[in-house]
Design a protein that fits this description.
It contains six helices and four strands; from the N terminus they run αββββααααα. It is an alpha+beta fold. The protein has one domain. The strands form two sheets. The chain has a two-stranded parallel ribbon with strand order 1-2. Helix 2 packs antiparallel against helix 4, helix 2 crosses helix 5 and helix 5 packs antiparallel against helix 6. The chain is globular and about 45 Å long. The protein starts with a helix and ends with a helix. The model has no long low-confidence stretch (mean pLDDT about 90).
Length: about 120
């Protein structure tokens, strides 16, 4: 999550690990020397909101900014509520094509719609 936020320019946090999204009950990849942090997703949360980004000419699956923000609220106890709020505020300030309805759609999929709604109303 932090690495996706950093990719989209939505955080001041420095990612100390690569955050991995895996479907429930998937096997955890073993990569030597690279710290991984695993986040477990059920369907359809795992497969929604995926963008393909080129990093060093290698296609990498990264969640969209809107999906990443919804995920931050889903995992707020793991990454910190302050990180999720910072991402939402930065999204509002920096993104030209803001789509708060899209965030709410992903929040509905992640089942955090009631949690994120007051924060969305506060930043708008």
């Amino acid at each position: 999550m932090i690495s996706a936020l950093a990719h989209h320019g939505l955080t001041t946090q420095v990612p100390h690990a690569i955050d991995f999204a895996l479907p429930t009950h998937a096997q955890v990849p073993q990569i030597d020397g690279i710290p991984l942090r695993i986040f477990w997703y059920s369907e359809p949360s795992f497969s929604s909101g995926i963008d393909i980004a080129k990093i060093d000419r290698v296609p990498v699956r990264v969640y969209s900014p809107e999906k990443t923000i919804a995920d931050c609220f889903k995992y707020r106890n793991k990454i910190g509520l302050d990180v999720a709020i910072e991402a939402l505020r930065t999204y509002r300030e920096r993104k030209r094509k803001r789509d708060f309805q899209k965030i709410m759609g992903f929040a509905r999929i992640d089942r955090v719609e009631r949690i994120i709604r007051p924060y969305l109303e506060a930043v708008l």
